[in-house]
Design a protein that fits this description.
The structure holds two protein chains of two kinds.
Chain A: H1 8-20, E1 36-44, E2 50-59, E3 62-68, E4 77-80, E5 85-88, E6 90-95, H2 123-126, H3 134-138, E7 142-147, E8 154-162, H4 168-171, E9 172-182, E10 187-190, E11 195-198, H5 202-221, H6 231-240, E12 245-250, H7 253-265, E13 269-274, H8 282-287, E14 292-294, H9 310-321, E15 325-327, H10 338-347, H11 352-357, H12 361-367, E16 384-387, E17 399-404, E18 407-408, H13 414-430
Parallel strand pairs in A: 1-4, 1-5, 6-7, 9-12, 12-13, 13-14, 14-15
Antiparallel strand pairs in A: 1-2, 2-3, 5-16, 7-8, 8-9, 10-11, 16-17, 17-18
Chain B: E1 3-5, H1 9-16, E2 39-49, E3 52-62, E4 65-71, E5 80-83, E6 88-91, E7 93-98, H2 139-142, H3 147-155, E8 158-163, E9 170-173, E10 175-178, H4 184-187, E11 188-190, E12 195-198, H5 212-231, H6 239-247, E13 252-255, H7 259-271, E14 277-279, H8 288-294, E15 298-300, E16 307-308, H9 321-329, H10 333-339, E17 344-346, H11 356-366, H12 371-378, H13 380-385, E18 403-406, E19 417-422, E20 425-428, E21 440-445, E22 448-455, E23 462-467, E24 474-481, E25 484-489, E26 498-505, E27 508-514, E28 520-527, H14 536-548, E29 574-582, E30 589-598, E31 601-606, E32 615-618, E33 623-626, E34 628-633, H15 662-668, E35 672-677, E36 685-688, E37 690-693, H16 700-703, E38 711-715, H17 737-759, H18 768-777, E39 782-787, H19 790-802, E40 809-812, H20 820-826, E41 829-832, H21 850-856, E42 861-863, H22 874-883, H23 889-894, H24 898-903, E43 921-924, E44 935-940, E45 943-947, H25 948-974, E46 979-980, E47 984-985
Parallel strand pairs in B: 2-5, 2-6, 7-8, 12-13, 13-14, 14-15, 15-17, 16-46, 29-32, 29-33, 34-35, 38-39, 39-40, 40-41, 41-42
Antiparallel strand pairs in B: 1-5, 2-3, 3-4, 6-18, 8-10, 9-12, 10-11, 18-19, 19-20, 21-22, 21-28, 22-23, 23-24, 24-25, 25-26, 26-27, 27-28, 29-30, 30-31, 33-43, 35-37, 36-38, 43-44, 44-45
Keywords (chain A): Signal
Pfam family, one (chain A): Amidohydro_1
Protein name (chain A): Amidohydrolase-related domain-containing protein
Chain lengths: ~425, ~1000
């Protein structure tokens, strides 16, 4: 493709401006060379347990050992984390981080493809490692994110990305971990009247989805044989064979049940995303071994009559019922508040370590990266945080150091830089 | 029907003094032969008026008017006698809110953003600038007889209608017409019967107003303009304003959608010396006291909601407790309004078809309304309201002969209307059969015996016949004429027909006819008693009256939705013991301290306080703070943006406060006690703010923060230049930041000129928009300016300095950190988000350190929500000032309490814990800025509006109530009641750029 430059002067000026301020993301961190020991920490394992006064040994990007009373071998850089907390790196599920930069600027939006069925669309491709939003999120403890497409009946496939990459290829931890399906709405909302009316096309839309799935199953038995290559069906093969997840976005209890049955019947692995009313069908979810990625606790109740703190309580209700669940938060820049979304649930009855687990090991298991990520255990990737205090409470949630695969991540970001810039302005004025 | 025609007509005319035929202006083709319509109706129970009933009456009418009603009187000579023995005669009903005979409303309506703006009126001619103001509409001119609709209305018992064109905010004048069909000239009784108004702009496609507050502002300005137009030597001719003035002496009827709307309308009326008659919404029972205080007469609708189909347990979740409650209580509205002493009349407007009136009216009576009050509300009430009592409403001498003939009392029983007489002309609706048929007869025809069963209503009776001892029945064709009954039937599927003529004898009938074989047969029918001795109707009645006694399953709360309070909270005397007290005063954060509140105020702060009679709350381990103040909120509002013009300084958010927003309660649970309800950011000069306390359960008026300074919303940047509105919206000025500045420059210059003219005593047209701006120039009104980028922030401060005023507060102000020094110097406060960014281009350089940097530079800094969700946890947002930029916790806490109080100039009343200040307090279970903190109790003016423990028990009770109503709904459905599909009512969550498009 030939790029014609119409305004060379403007381009030049633009480049000059860009270099005038360092509006670039920090350089990705190099591989771990020096082994590391973190001592004296309160270590939240991620599996629901906590180790007081823990020692954590890290070498070659992996966790060598974790426990109390471990001796630190020679040659290890030692971080005294006494009084501090260590957590696994947080995993932000169902996020548009890297897929959009400025919501209202269309040119920066790459999360929503046109058409009803987009299983073939891959969020991975649109994931912008150079998004200036990413470092602001990473610096609050989120080290992995599920880049997730939105919209339509089938939005596309998500991928699990680590948040310190040069490009989408080396940032991908797990490509195409599953397909996102938005269960049709039973009710359509009239913005002018505030009425929620039955969606007259609901049955039709469900049938459309069923038909599509049947076609896909047929196609996937002999992919590409005797027919033209059909990308949309092909994209579903991993999911209908049960090798990748089907992320079923549904909030109402009825939809959760209908959707789960549909996908279970074809041998797929459904995961509920949203799950506002999952607490009403916990036995069903357990019976079918379906995990739930809960949408943000920091939300309003869905209806006037609901408990005023229903979203705050949902995680505790699922924990109590024994349903596997993860906690998520909406959007892209908002992901930096993920720890507080979990903290909110703790304020409304969720066990603290369970809340940590819901952002670490639980999401890792759901998406299928728990062999390497999600908890601090020997042999796993050294992806963790050192926090001055309680990560889940903004009063003390200062992330001091963060590591992805043992690489020490630069926690600086555009916003911190602007802060310094204007601190300097005012410092000069008072001089 | 038996007609006894007396021949001496001429004599009768002479005796009664009527010699002339009715005089009309139009010519008559042929030999004049219109009879005078001299009738005498005998034997009926005549309900002359709601107060007076005459049994076995003789009613005479002539020339379309009532002559007399006498008990057992004789039929005057010359009158056509009509025997109505056993029947009831009522004055026919008057529809006070009809659109009978009006043209269809054409096209228009709300436009979508995609269409682009319509800035000007499409009405051609020298009329109002605004297309929704149509006072020139004259129903009398538009009226033409509509036979189909007239018939439908007569079937429902109406004889007279006050009709108007239901289109626009001012809908012009109504005309009173009868439902006769002779000529438009004769049926039109009165022109200019009333002026009709509404909050609905109807077919107008003009952008302004696109909000309720815009509508109210337009009404206000129209009153002022008309006044000015009447006084001033005219600079323009305006036919609408002339028409408006002519309407002002008429009854003013205002249509509303809710009890809150009724109060809104009444308030506007009060401002201009108008007492509106309110065309109500059917929910008046929810708040009777203020409605009574309004002094308005209500026109009540009878369109009660159908039962919700709640068969599917999850689909039923869509139906709210509020909807279920209204379903149960709506029929009781009439009774509730009446017993509150609020004057009312009734309308069939809103019913699917006019005849639904009867069932609705009986439902209302079953739910407690007095039948005579219902009759009055359909007859004498409307007549008085419309000033036509001299012509219709009762059957007193001289009134129009407008009446209906029924078999029973239609208010308590399912009755049949046989005839509806309008202006002395009969409209037969059903055969006036005087047949008093029994439910069943033993019939003998020749040697054969049968049983005949009668069903149906008078006029449409049916009979089935079956051989005695057999159950297979066949239909009998029968008709009656001149007292002779003619029957035709075939007893079996095969064989021939019987044809019979019979005449009454005793309780039954005898006669003769021909059998299937053509031979003469004799016939007799004698009534047979029902098997258990009671009639079906009686049984039904008994069941119904048993149902009557059922008490309501629903509660009535303040407001009447989920989480409404059982009553208004009372002022308490409370001693909080041993709390960590965040004073926001010099004392800072006090450990183990007591606080006493009484009479709505903070009375004492100290150690080991005691107070006689105080409720003692052990607050050990808990934190007591002043209530959170949200400087930027859009909850509890019907609309947020007018935004259709670059300035809408005339609109007032106080006009559209919605006291029934559940978010008020949810935010009390987050510790919020005061909020500034702001206009949105769709235009550079928005509307006037409302500052309110979250007094859950009160009326909008009662929620207002009394004595607070007036504020106004300004906005800058992407929203006001419509950057993200799509390509159709490139017309309204301004479209750039350059234009934004010029709008301000222009408006402030005009406001200054306006002020000078006023001061010079010139006869200026009062302009509410310029007055609001003039108040800014006079430091009587203060600006909260939505702003993002440093350039525009600088611009507004410079502009303000040029015009010699100060920008009070910049809200959002996400680049405030870049110009914090200038803001401090100007004296502008900054009310920002803790950490929002990246959602549009102008927030690309927003940083979460913004609050800290502004604070460090001496800017009065706060965090606001602009969001119904976030407002529930502003305490956590305050903590982000600690996290980003290291503000001390004590100072950060002021970001959501004292500092916004200062920005709103209410810090003498709220914002800190100090003796003498309002007792607006929150008791937290934990450090208030911790993510784990929950507000346990929230007080406003010393009244407890939220209590977490009570919240739990209230929710439990609510679930039980909800279930009881669902069970009642299912019961109703099982009995065959009509149902509707559940339809939720989700609240529109409004933000700065929420639009009504």
């Amino acid at each position: 493709m030939k790029i014609s430059i119409k305004y060379p002067l403007a381009l030049l000026l633009g480049l000059l401006l860009c270099t005038g301020v360092r509006a670039q993301n920090p350089t990705p961190a190099p591989q771990q060379r020096e082994p590391l020991a973190v001592t004296g920490a309160t270590l939240h394992v991620g599996d629901g347990t906590v180790i007081d006064n823990a020692t954590l040994l890290v070498a070659n990007g992996k966790i060598e050992a974790v426990g109390t009373g471990l001796s630190v071998p020679n040659g290890y850089r030692t971080v005294d984390a006494t009084g501090k907390h260590v957590y696994p790196g947080l995993i932000a599920l169902n996020s548009q981080l890297g897929l959009t930069e400025i919501g209202a600027v269309r040119a920066t939006n790459d999360q929503r493809e046109v058409g009803t069925f987009n299983p073939n669309a891959r969020a991975l491709i649109a994931f912008n490692t150079d998004s200036q939003v990413i470092p602001t999120v990473r610096s609050r403890g989120v080290l992995l994110a599920q880049a997730t497409p939105e919209g339509s009946l089938v939005s596309g496939r998500s991928s699990i990305m680590q948040l310190d990459g040069w490009n989408f290829e080396d940032a991908a931890v797990l490509a195409d971990d599953g397909i996102h399906v938005n269960w049709p709405n039973r009710n359509s909302y009239n913005w002018q009247t505030g009425d929620l009316r039955p969606n007259e096309r609901y049955d039709e839309q469900v049938r459309e989805l069923e038909t599509f799935l049947q076609q896909a199953i047929g196609y996937c038995q002999n992919p590409g044989e005797g027919t033209a290559r059909l990308l949309k069906f092909e994209a579903f093969c991993e999911a209908v064979n049960g090798n990748s997840n089907v992320y079923l976005h549904a909030d109402e209890a009825r939809d959760i049940q209908a959707g789960v049955l549909l996908f279970k019947n074809i041998g797929a692995k459904p995961v509920i995303v949203g799950g506002y009313q999952a607490y009403l069908v916990t036995d069903f979810l357990k019976r079918h071994e379906v995990p739930v990625i809960l949408s943000s606790t920091q939300a309003l109740p869905d209806s006037q009559d609901d408990a005023i703190d229903q979203p705050y309580r949902n995680p505790a209700l699922l924990a109590e019922a024994g349903v596997d669940f993860a906690i998520s938060h909406e959007g892209y820049w908002q992901q930096r508040n993920l720890p507080f979304v979990a903290g909110q649930a703790v304020g409304f009855g969720l066990d603290y370590e369970k809340a940590v687990q819901a952002m670490t090991l639980a999401p890792a298991r759901i998406v299928g990266i728990d062999q390497d990520y999600g908890s601090i255990a020997t042999g796993k990737s050294a992806t963790f945080l050192i926090v001055s205090g309680d990560l889940l409470d903004m009063r003390s949630s200062e992330v001091e150091e963060a590591f992805i695969d043992g690489r020490s991540i630069n926690l600086d970001n555009k916003q911190a830089e602007l802060y310094r810039k204007f601190k300097e302005k005012y410092r000069r004025e008072t001089r | 029907m038996t007609h006894c025609i007396r021949p001496l007509l001429l004599l009768a005319f002479l005796l009664s003094g009527f010699a002339l035929s009715a005089q009309t202006t139009y010519p008559y083709n042929g030999v004049y032969d219109e009879p005078t319509g001299f009738y005498a109706f005998t034997g009926a129970t005549v309900h002359v008026s709601p107060e007076r009933t005459v049994e076995n009456a003789t009613l005479t009418i002539r020339n379309g008017k009532v002559e007399s009603v006498t008990a057992g009187g004789t039929v005057p000579r010359g009158a056509v006698a009509v025997d109505l023995t056993g029947k009831h005669v009522y004055p026919s009903f008057i529809e006070v809110y009809g659109d009978y005979g009006m043209p269809e409303i054409e096209g228009g309506g709300r436009r979508s953003r995609r269409d682009g703006p319509q800035m000007e009126s499409n009405t051609e001619g020298a009329y109002a600038w605004n297309q929704a103001m149509r006072p020139e509409t004259d129903a009398a001119r538009l009226f033409t007889i509509d036979e189909k609709k007239a018939k439908a209305l007569r079937e429902a018992g109406f004889g007279t209608v006050s009709t108007h064109h239901h289109d626009g905010i001012s809908r012009g004048s109504a005309a009173v017409v009868t439902l006769a069909e002779d000529s438009d000239n004769e049926v039109l009784l009165k022109r200019n019967a009333a002026h009709h108004l509404s909050f609905d702009k109807g077919s107008s496609g003009q952008d302004y107003p696109n909000s309720r507050m815009g509508t109210i502002a337009l009404l206000r300005q129209t009153y002022l303009d008309a006044d000015w137009y009447g006084k001033k030597s005219r600079e323009e001719t305006n036919l609408s304003l002339e028409a408006w003035q002519n309407l002002q002496s008429l009854p003013q009827i205002f249509a509303v959608d809710s009890w809150q709307d009724a109060l809104r309308a009444d308030k506007v009326g009060d401002e201009f010396g108008k007492q509106y008659i309110i065309r109500g919404s059917g929910d008046e029972y929810q708040r009777l006291e203020p409605l009574k205080a309004s002094g308005a007469t209500f026109i009540l609708p009878l369109d009660f909601p159908e039962t919700y189909d709640v068969s599917d347990p999850f689909a039923a979740d869509l139906v709210s407790l509020a909807q279920l409650r209204h379903w149960e209580r709506a029929p009781g509205n009439v009774a509730a309004v009446d017993s509150a002493g609020i004057p009312f009349v009734l309308t069939a407007d809103g019913l699917e078809k006019p005849t639904d009136l009867h069932e609705a009216m009986r439902k209302a009576i079953k739910a407690g309304a007095a039948p005579d009050r219902v009759l009055a509300a359909l007859t004498t009430g409307p007549a008085q309201l419309l000033g036509i009592s001299d012509r219709v409403g009762t059957l007193e001498k001289g009134k129009l002969a407008n009446f209906i003939v029924t078999d029973k009392d239609p208010f308590t029983e399912k009755a049949t209307i046989y005839q509806n007489w309008v202006q002395g002309r009969a409209f037969e609706l059903k055969d006036l059969d005087n047949l008093d048929l029994a439910d069943a007869y033993d019939i003998t025809v020749g040697a054969d015996r049968f049983v005949g069963e009668v069903s149906g209503e008078p006029g449409s009776r049916k009979m089935k016949i079956s051989p005695a001892g057999d159950t297979t029945s066949t239909e009998v064709n029968f008709s009656e004429s001149g007292g002779v009954l003619t029957l035709r039937f075939r007893p079996g599927k095969e064989g021939g027909f019987y044809r019979i003529n019979a005449t009454p004898q005793g309780e039954g009938y005898t006669g003769s006819g021909r059998g299937p074989d053509g031979r003469l047969v004799t016939f007799s029918a004698t009534p047979r008693p029902a098997s258990d001795g009671t009639r079906e109707d009686d049984k039904k009645k008994k069941e119904e009256s048993e149902e009557d006694r059922k008490p309501y399953a629903s509660r009535l709360t303040y407001p009447n939705i989920a989480y409404g309070l059982p009553g208004h909270p009372t002022t308490r005397k409370v001693l909080f013991r041993n709390a960590t007290v965040w004073t926001n005063e010099e004392d800072g954060i006090l450990q183990e301290t007591d606080v006493l509140i009484e009479n709505g105020k903070i009375s004492r702060v100290g150690k080991s306080l005691s107070a006689a009679g105080a409720e003692i709350i052990d607050a050990t381990g808990m934190h007591l703070t002043s209530g959170i103040i949200d400087e930027h909120s859009h909850i509890a509002l019907l609309d947020v943006n007018e935004g259709t013009q670059s300035s809408t300084a005339e609109v007032r958010m106080a006009d559209v406060v919605d006291a029934v927003d559940e978010n008020i309660y949810r935010q009390l649970a987050g510790g919020v006690t005061t909020s500034q309800l702001l206009h949105g950011s769709a235009n550079p000069i928005g509307g006037q703010s409302a500052i309110f306390k979250l007094r859950w359960g009160a009326t909008p008026e009662e929620m207002m923060f009394q004595g607070a300074d007036p504020f106004i919303k300004f906005a800058l940047g992407e929203n006001v230049k419509q950057s993200n509105w799509g390509d159709a919206n490139r017309i309204r000025y301004p479209q750039t930041r350059m234009g934004v500045e010029q709008i301000f420059e222009n408006y402030f210059s005009r406001a200054a000129e306006y002020g000078r003219a006023k001061q010079a005593g010139e006869d200026v047209r009062r302009d509410l928009e310029l007055e609001a701006l003039l108040e800014i120039l006079n430091d009587e009104r203060f600006i909260t300016a939505h702003s993002y980028q440093q350039g525009e922030i600088n611009m507004l401060m410079e502009l303000a300095e040029r015009h010699d005023f100060r920008v009070n507060t910049f809200t959002h102000i996400l680049e405030g950190y870049k110009v914090a020094d200038k803001m401090a110097e100007h004296g502008a406060a900054g009310s920002t988000f803790s950490d929002w960014w990246a959602y549009k281009f102008e927030v690309n350089e927003a940083i979460p350190y913004n609050g800290a940097l502004m604070h460090e530079q001496g800017v009065l800094t706060g965090f606001n929500s602009d969001d119904a969700e976030m407002a529930r946890r502003l305490n956590q947002e305050a903590a982000k000032a600690v996290l980003f930029g290291g503000v001390s916790e004590e100072e950060a806490w002021k970001f959501v309490t004292l500092n916004p109080a200062k920005m709103l100039h209410i810090d003498d009343r709220v914002g800190s814990i100090k003796a003498g200040k309002d007792a607006d307090l929150v008791l937290w279970n934990d450090h208030p800025m911790s993510i784990y903190a929950r507000a346990e109790r929230t007080y406003i003016d010393g009244k407890e509006y939220f209590n977490r423990t009570e919240n739990e028990s209230r929710r439990e009770a609510m679930l039980q109530e909800r279930n009881a109503l669902i069970q009642a709904s299912l019961d109703d459905k099982n009995k065959g009641g009509k149902t509707q599909t559940p339809r939720g009512n989700s609240r529109r969550l409004l933000h700065c750029n929420s639009e009504n498009h």
